Amino acid sequence: MHPIKRLAVRAKRAQRVLTMISDTEATFWKALSGLVLILTFTVLILNSVFVAKQDTIFRICYECKNVSTGLVMGFGMHTMDTDRDQIDFEYQSAVANSSGVTAILLRGPIVLGSLTGPITTALCGSPSNLVCSLTPPLKQTATAVYNGVHPVSNSVRPMMADIRRQPYLYYTEVLTNANPASPGECRAVMTGACGFA
Question: What is the pTM of this model?
Fold first, then answer.
């Protein structure tokens, strides 16, 4: 075979090898890109699943102030647990002469142009039939668990979700023997978040 023909054959073979290498390289990069996309979507899906399970416990700490005087009348904390669908709550009067807690109400959402909201739920006391358990002698402490089964069978989860989303539209109202009607002994806005778990 003539040396020029031999060179042409070798050039064609080299061209085919280069084409195969180029095709293999393109396939490799396509496969790598696909793998990166699959891993990215997997991470996003897993992240969205785990984000939904995070922060199942949300705590609101508050100072309950008298509406007319602005004096702090007590302190409290609501622990909203979406895993157990319940609200644990505690309130302690800051004044020795408190006449006793008769009801702790969650009120809201406050409508535009108003300073008050409807009763969302009674954590204890009227209109529910959960009693506010009091610890004497001077400072009163009301503690209990509200799970929405008592007095009604509604889940508290939608209410807790709305409070977490728009806490500024909700408030706690504490009624006592001396102040049995709204605005009660004191009110506290629900914006005092004191922790997640």
Answer: 0.64
